[in-house]
């Protein structure tokens, strides 16, 4: 048992009226002790529950990011002048709506925007369809690539994927605790904004609850991240919705607050459709394959909507309208299929 960790646990777990928030340094130490096993399993489980009940602060989340930065792998700089887009997707996957982010990442990387994704195996609380499974179905064996292969892929093809069990096993060990406590701990929020890249980052992540967005902004500011896009997207992902106005927080260094909100309604751009339900994983895989080959599918409109926004937000095009036009062109010509095949063939992902 660690008496030092016990004091940190007592600080956050003392009840509604007497608990205290951790400093950034204390939060970093707490997570470091959990990741390295200096805290006991009982202490780790207790911390996860107590921290969830208390609710984390932006400063605590910044400290936890410090611990991830210290103990996790980081990819080296591929270009001093380029921002790497880090797409933060909930690790527990999707169960209700079809994921669009793989198509978005293909669009961005094909247009010269480096994209880094990360995730792991199936985990609670949703045990939903994971990014790793999607990319494997598309022919990219992201689960068995070395860190050097990921680095090469990011540098040469503008796409990389860090798989937790392979590239950050210390963090993957937490899955067992999450299964046993049955609740999503604050670490799940940390995963959305983890940026394992040493150069300039553009954090593009999803969220569900407005307090989470505020906490993420505070954590990113404290850790020196200057470029961010936070989307109240489908199932907490960065996938824009087709059926309603999307609320998006982006950095704005000219304003006193340091950020501003965008409200994007697809109807304003002539797009009217539905967010495609995840009826079955096999059906999704079939529709995904058809979509990137250029066939019109129930995923096509969402793919154009998301692709257009991300191209515009990443400064590939000057306007949303231009982004939508370019995304539609890339999708309908089958360019995404060729790009995906190039990723798997030329860089030995399979």
From TrEMBL:
Residues 6-68 form the Glycosyl transferase family 3 N-terminal domain. InterPro entries: Anthranilate_Pribosyl_Tfrase, Glycosyl_Trfase_fam3, Glycosyl_Trfase_fam3_N_dom, Glycosyl_Trfase_fam3_N_dom_sf, Nuc_phospho_transferase. Keywords: Amino-acid biosynthesis, Aromatic amino acid biosynthesis, Glycosyltransferase, Transferase. The keyword Amino-acid biosynthesis applies. Pfam families: Glycos_trans_3N (PF02885), Glycos_transf_3 (PF00591). GO terms for biological process: L-tryptophan biosynthetic process. GO terms for molecular function: anthranilate phosphoribosyltransferase activity. Residues 97-334 form the Glycosyl transferase family domain. One of its GO terms (cellular component) is cytosol. This is Anthranilate phosphoribosyltransferase family protein. It comes from Cyanobacterium aponinum AL20115.
């Amino acid at each position: 048992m660690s008496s030092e960790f016990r004091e940190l646990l007592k600080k956050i777990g003392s009840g509604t009226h007497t608990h205290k928030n951790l400093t950034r340094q204390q939060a970093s130490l707490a997570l470091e002790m959990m990741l390295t096993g200096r805290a006991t399993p009982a202490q780790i489980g207790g911390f996860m529950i107590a921290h969830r009940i208390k609710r984390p602060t932006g400063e605590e989340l910044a400290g936890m990011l410090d611990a991830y930065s210290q103990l996790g792998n980081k990819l080296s700089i591929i270009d001093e002048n380029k921002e790497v887009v880090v797409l933060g997707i909930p690790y527990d996957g999707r169960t209700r709506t079809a994921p669009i982010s793989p198509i978005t990442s293909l669009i961005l990387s094909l247009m010269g925007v480096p994209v880094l994704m990360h995730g792991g195996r199936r985990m609670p609380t949703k045990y939903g369809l994971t990014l790793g499974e999607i990319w494997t179905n598309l022919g990219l064996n992201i689960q068995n690539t070395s860190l050097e292969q990921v680095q090469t892929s990011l540098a040469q093809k503008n796409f990389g994927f860090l798989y937790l069990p392979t590239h950050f096993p210390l963090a993957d060990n937490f899955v067992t605790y999450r299964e046993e406590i049955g609740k999503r701990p604050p670490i799940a929020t940390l995963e959305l904004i983890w940026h394992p890249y040493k150069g300039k980052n553009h954090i593009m992540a999803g969220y569900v609850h407005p307090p989470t967005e505020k906490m993420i902004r505070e954590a990113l500011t404290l850790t020196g991240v200057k470029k961010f896009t936070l989307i109240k997207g489908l199932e907490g992902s960065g996938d824009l919705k087709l059926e309603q106005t999307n609320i998006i927080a982006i950095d704005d260094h000219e304003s006193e607050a340091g950020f501003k909100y965008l409200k994007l309604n697809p109807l304003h751009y002539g797009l009217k459709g539905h967010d495609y339900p995840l009826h079955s994983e096999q059906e999704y895989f079939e529709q995904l394959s058809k979509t990137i080959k250029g066939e019109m599918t129930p995923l096509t409109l969402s793919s154009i909507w998301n692709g257009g926004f991300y191209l515009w937000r990443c400064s590939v095009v000057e306007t949303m309208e231009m982004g939508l036009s370019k995304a539609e062109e890339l999708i309908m010509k089958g360019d995404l299929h060729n790009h995906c095949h190039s990723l798997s063939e030329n860089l030995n992902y399979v």
